[in-house]
DNA sequence: GGTCGTTTTATAATCATTCTTATCCGATAA
DNA sequence: TTATCGGATAAGAATGATTATAAAACGACC
């Protein structure tokens, strides 16, 4: 998928971002690649069009895009390992902003429907569910 | 919470782990701390009882406990940033073993029930749900 | 075209985590 | 109890992802 310069300019303006060539190419690389890509993957793709680009630029722009809502982060957790000794069935409420995790009790998944959508071979033995949103503190800030 | 040496020995035997003092103290530190703790947090707690313990030992044991199911990992994602350009409502199916992410469509959350359990102030504006399990490939391996 | 603030580049720095190696300890058999 | 062996630990180096820094380049507005 290629956006025209004009299209990207509009998109950027709507989100308060300056327009640069690198930025456009990074954005297009993510959109073109259906899937969940790492910064390195994006970097590799972008380098085919701008060989001189630096990895830091990719990181900078991905972060910017996430911040202004153009992209979604697939790893919204704290970036470091967390461990939970509670093996009872429970679910997690995760703040997309500050990455805090709270437990929630209760069964609120329609497993019948869910299993209809789960591809063959995927084993839902531990259907731990993580629900994302904004915690009270972060909502107050925003 | 303190386990007797005998209790821990049983627990370890059931999971095929050798019994060491360090191991017991690490395990107890996680269980005693209700919440979602990082290796550094656990290290700090354990050092109060075994000042000479090394951070690597904490990491080793946490990994072991997770592998044999004594603990649950709260950050089951790939450890590196992943980015998703698909802003349409969809959910994720995450493999707890290999951390791969697949999209799934469909509405299978009972929002009425869910919202009953969500604490005041938490804003479910983006109720992206991640459902964990074992993907086909990892299930075949196990 | 000139100026100013932003972006990019290149590289250094940081942080979490894992690896390496030597040493130590727990479990088993004599 | 002691000898032995394999796995566990300690200490620190190494790795890999990400972020910070500083200088050069660029875009936007005049």
Protein model, in words:
The structure is a homodimer of 142-residue chains. Chain A has 142 residues and is α+β, with helices and mostly antiparallel strands. Chain A has helices spanning 5-14, 21-32, 39-47, 55-67, 111-117, 136-141, and strands at 72-73, 83-84, 91-95, 101-104, 129-133. In chain A, strands 4-3-5 form a three-stranded mixed beta sheet, with no helix packed on it. In chain A, a hairpin with a 5-residue loop joins β3 (91-95) and β4 (101-104). In chain A, α2 (21-32) packs across α4. The longest helix of chain A is centred in the middle third of the chain and has 13 residues, at 55-67. β1 of chain A pairs antiparallel with β2 (83-84) of chain B, so a sheet runs across the interface. Chain A binds a DNA duplex (30 and 30 nucleotides) through residues 18-23, 38-40, 52-57, 59-61, 63, 79-81.
In N-to-C order, the SSE pattern of chain A is: HHHHEEEEHEH
Total strands of chain A: 5
What would the average pLDDT of chain A be, to the nearest integer?
87
Radius of gyration of chain A: 19 Å
User: In terms of per-residue confidence, which ranges of chain A show pLDDT below 50 for 5 or more consecutive residues?
Assistant: none
Question: Largest interface, counted with CB-CB under 8 A?
Answer: A-B, 68 and 68 residues
Structural class of chain A: alpha+beta
